[in-house]
Amino acid sequence: MKNKIRKVYKSKDFRLLAESKNYVLGHEFEYCYLYKKMTGHSIYLGDCYGDPSFGLIDKNENWALVLAHPAYLWTPSHIFNLNEGQSSAARQLNFPFTARQIGNFEVEILDDPWSDNPGIHNLNAQTGVIQRIRDFKRLESPYDDNTEIEW
Fold first, then answer.
1. What is the pLDDT of residues 20-62, one digit of tens each?
2. Domain contains 117
3. Is position 144 within any domain?
4. Count of alpha carbons within 13 Å of 108, Cβ hemisphere only?
5. Strand 5-6's sheet: what is its strand order?
6. N or C: which end of the chain has fewer CB within 10 A?
């Protein structure tokens, strides 16, 4: 898929998800972009259902992750839709809420903590392969985008 390039970072509707030395990750409504500071352009990552909930840029800037439905992983050579090509419903992300980097190319994702089947998934950011690694206790509190969860 050829990247769509547009200037969006300065749009009043652009919402910041994450920022690093050379990149800004964000969205304009349901459309997700990675902004290259040096060139002044954005790479279109994909669109999602509703606004994204979280973004993460690798500490070495080798990849970026947008959590939404679907979730997107950017690498310099590929953009992965993390909900496509899942062979098992047990491994598919539903509504990922937050993530944390645990290695250079390894990420843990907390998926849908308010659902009947919340879980933690491991993502290999080099290959785009995702696996459910453990269950998570369902949150009983009402949904809130700003909820801080200990996990």
1. 999 999 999 999 999 999 988 889 999 999 899 899 999 999 9
2. yes
3. no
4. 11
5. 5-6, 41-47, 31-36, 23-28, 14-19
6. N
Instruction: Give the number of domains in the chain.
Output: 1
What token pair was written down for 45?
A: 């990552």
Cα angle 28, 9, 123 (rounded to 5 degrees) comes to 65
Residue 93: half-sphere exposure toward Cβ, Cα within 13 Å: 30
- Rounded to 5 degrees, what angle do the CA atoms 47, 53, 54 make? 100
Q: What is the pTM of this model?
A: 0.87
Structure confidence by residue, pLDDT tens digits, 131-150: 999 999 999 988 887 788 99
Output the domain CATH number for residue 80: 2.130.10.10
Q: Distance from CA of residue 145 to its chain's centroid?
A: 15
Residue 143 lies in a domain: no
> CA 131, 136, 90 angle in degrees (round to 5)?
35
Residue 89's domain spans which residues?
5-135
Angle, vertex CA 58, rays to CA 72 and CA 39, nearest 5 = 80
DSSP 8-class letter at 114: T
